[in-house]
Design goal:
This is Tyrosine-type recombinase/integrase. This protein has 13 helices and 3 strands; from the N terminus they run αααααααβββαααααα. The protein is mainly α. The chain folds into 2 domains: 101 residues, Tyrosine recombinase, N-terminal domain (DNA polymerase, domain 1, Orthogonal Bundle), CATH 1.10.150.130; 168 residues, hpI Integrase, Chain A (Orthogonal Bundle).
Length: 349
């Protein structure tokens, strides 16, 4: 390899992270940074001090090393995890070639594992009927509470947690007075300079209609339960803690907690003694096998829309995701359900 400038792996990775600031959301940069930590560790353990020296043989060895769980102290990792880790490394190597750190074709020597049908898609979801059950419970037992508003907004809009977390009071049109939106609505806005970017950046900025009932609950939350605070940028967040805007994982923890069956009065389906269950302890709700993440709730919402024959274009716009992503990662209808829905739309032959 000729014409390369010596550079350490850690310096090249730092340059890659810095370059991503121009085009990628903070959540994406964080994921890429996490996935490249193992590569930095590998280079350190194998005394690769100059990235110019990296070869196809090194990449093969790294793939095997990572597959066996080295790099984070775990056992062998899943194939889908390995694929995402190697895909990040390929993107980094293409960047490294642009700064004369590696050979331009080196990234092509890092092959990604082939996935069987559906192997790279999570099957976990929050069934629509269960989401409605939890929301009904919140409306009766904790109306207009922060938990209620978080679950209601995530379910009713299908938005990502980052979008809901980034809402300000100024983003609300609860009386339906906006000239371009008929009825109550909220606006998701990309504001990266003040800490609340949207995943799809400016393309993610959009208005979403909400029901009058939802608008009333939000009004009650603001009047009776919202902490009257601003965040570190002087903005007035809708969802608050006593210290300002909640941290990024607060909404996730809320979902883990309220989706446990014991939380809303159901018997434990896992034959656990509730008084002794670790998942009932603070910050351990995710250890309940029945707890679900915001991604699971989002997939449940897509499934609900598709069962109701809501056009894919409408779902795509409301959730700010491509039709391919919705079909592949969020739609949890069974093959039988999809076949029956198609037959209902087709004329008799």
């Amino acid at each position: 390899m000729t014409g390369l400038d010596p550079i350490s792996p850690i310096e090249a990775v730092q340059m890659y992270h810095e370059a991503m600031r121009d085009e990628h959301a903070a959540s994406t940069r964080k994921s890429e940074k996490h996935r490249l930590r193992a590569f930095i560790q590998y280079c350190d353990e194998h005394e690769i001090e100059n990235l110019n020296e990296l070869s196809g043989r090194d990449l093969y060895r790294y793939r095997t090393w990572r597959r066996e769980g080295h790099g984070d102290g775990r056992e062998a990792i899943k194939l889908v995890t390995l694929k995402s880790q190697l895909a990040t490394l390929r993107r980094f190597l293409r960047f490294a070639a642009n700064i004369d750190a590696v050979d331009p074709e080196l990234y092509e020597q890092l092959t990604l594992p082939l996935m069987k049908n559906g192997e790279d898609v999570s099957e976990s979801t929050l069934k629509p009927e269960r989401a409605v059950q939890i929301l009904d419970y919140l409306e009766k037992a904790h109306p207009a509470s922060r938990d209620h508003i978080i679950v209601m907004l995530l379910w009713r809009t299908g938005a990502r947690t980052g979008a809901v977390r980034g809402l300000d009071l100024r983003d609300l049109d609860l009386d339906g007075s906006h000239p371009r939106v008929s009825g109550p609505a909220i606006q998701f806005v990309h504001r990266p300079k003040t800490g609340t970017p949207l995943k799809n950046q400016d393309k993610g900025t959009r208005w979403n209609r909400i029901s009058e009932k939802a608008a009333r609950y939000i009004s009650d939350y603001i009047e009776y339960h919202r902490d009257d605070v601003t965040d570190e940028h002087g903005r007035e967040p809708l969802i608050t803690t006593k210290h300002g805007r909640p941290a990024g994982n607060t909404l996730r923890k809320t979902l883990y907690r309220v989706t446990r069956p014991c939380w809303y009065g159901e018997d434990c389906p896992h034959d656990r003694e509730i008084s002794e269950c670790e998942a009932t302890q603070f910050d351990h709700a995710s250890k309940c096998p029945s707890s679900r993440s915001p991604h699971d709730l989002r997939s449940g919402r897509v499934t609900y829309y598709r069962r109701e024959d809501v056009p894919r274009r409408v779902v795509k716009d409301r959730l700010n995701a491509s039709e391919d992503i919705l079909d592949r990662h969020y739609d949890r209808r069974s093959d039988r359900e999809q076949a029956e829905q198609r037959s209902n739309l087709l004329p008799d032959l």
